[in-house]
Amino acid sequence: MQVTTRSSASDKRIALFVATLSSFLAPFMISAVNIAIPVIGGRFAVSAVVLSWFATAYLLAATMFLVPFGRLADIHGRKRIFIYGMCIYVTSSLIAAVANSAAMFIIARIVEGTGAAMIMGTGVAILTSVFPPQERGRALGINVAAVYLGLSLGPFIGGFLTDFLTWRSVFMVNVPLGLSALALVFWKLKGEWAGARGEKFDLTGSVIYSVMLVALVYGLTQVPEMHVVGAALLAAGAAGLIAFIWWEGRAEHPVLNISLFRNNAVFAFSNLAALINYSATFAVTFLLSLYLQYTKGYSPFMAGLLLVPQPVVMTALSPFAGRLSDRIEPIVVASVGMAVTTMGLFFFIFLGEGTSLVLIIANLIILGVGFSLFSSPNTNAVMSSVEKRYYGVAAGTLGTMRTIGQSFSMGIVMLLFAVYIGGTRITPDTHQLFLTSARVAFIIFTCLCFLGIFASLARGKMRGEQ
Which of 49, 197, 233, 273 has the highest CB neighbour number within 10 Å of its CB? Predict the structure, then answer.
């Protein structure tokens, strides 16, 4: 059945709890794995570029499938897709935990990313279905806070488990958490949400979309070492983007309604701002994890502990930022957040061997403030700018902007590693090359985030439209 915005208080609480728990899992795993990656790389004896794929494989899979699964959820039911996704996520986490080769581990991460796409493409859509517009910012703020709580606990718990048990235990943590979410959905979350029930699924558009993203992201990583192959993949990705836009304009029931971008400035520029923000910020934790362990010589547990301040600040401020966006223009709050984030990234350009830990922690707090002020209001702007029948697609699109941005952020790092470090492992002999690549990355990220301020401001006001 289709639930209306007049859902009971009990429905709202249960939906919020389940969506919040699921929103915790994916970022928890991302940040926990970032801390464990140097140890996993040592176990499988891989190069710096392959090391980057341990994170990128998950992100690329999630990016490929977020919009298609968001559309399937709108057609067949958001709760149903959520359940399937959680089952896949838990199973793939078990496979990653027992992987005995780098190839097996990367395959498990791809499957895990697919399950994460099904979860991320439905959780926010369910929340938006249940909560009316005047309560939506608060609910989404709590949901975003859960994301940051996962980011907060990931480095700490991931570092602890890697140091005192084994990196494999990091993936085992997903199992009881995922099973708990499944139990709550089966026993407590009643009803179903399918705003586009009866419409056809655009399989052709979905295939073009997925292949296009793979070509763009993988092509970016191949440019330094195989110029012809990398250029060909990037060209194929660009051609795929043109083909996708052309096909979606003709499809009766497109997987992604292009008119949402053409005719809805709030939707278009809010998604663009999210894309830029995640492109500029995601790899920060990855780079600092490597910096603290390789350059500063800290254990995974201590490195994780030092990275905790940023997501802790995000967790604390996100509900406040969400409530603030219910009262005043989201454009104002989000744009201020983007500006603060730009300032934090700029300071990291000067990262070196002798950089004080106090300065690093203070800067992480600045980034936490900026990102929390941006994310909740921006999510509220996206979800409040579309009709109910597009909630799944809107959530999937926003999630795709996040994962494309994360993949692009990692792609920039992989490209710089390939240029400056090459196909070798990060060792004391290559520390200066690593620091050079990290500083160049922060220059690029700062410039991106500065441009993001203007994308955030360009969306225009929402209040007059509601």
Answer: 273
Nearest to 281 by CA among 205, 395, 368: 368
Show the tokens assigned to 54: 């341990």
Domain range annotation of the chain: 9-201+253-465
CB 46 within 8 A of CB 102: yes
| β-bridge mates for residue 2, sequence order | 192
User: pTM value?
Assistant: 0.69
pLDDT at 450: 92
Residue 188 has what pLDDT?
67
Ramachandran class of 356: left when φ > 0, alpha when ψ lies in -120 to 50, beta otherwise:
beta
Among the listed residues 55, 103, 96, 255, the one whose alpha carbon sits nearest the alpha carbon of residue 178: 96
101 burial class (0-12, 13-18, 19+ CB within 10 angstroms)?
A: exposed
pLDDT, position 194: 56
Burial tier of 262 (Cβ tally within 10 Å: 0-12, 13-18, 19+): exposed
pLDDT of residue 1 exceeding 50, the answer is no
Superfamily of domain 9-201+253-465: MFS general substrate transporter like domains (1.20.1250.20)
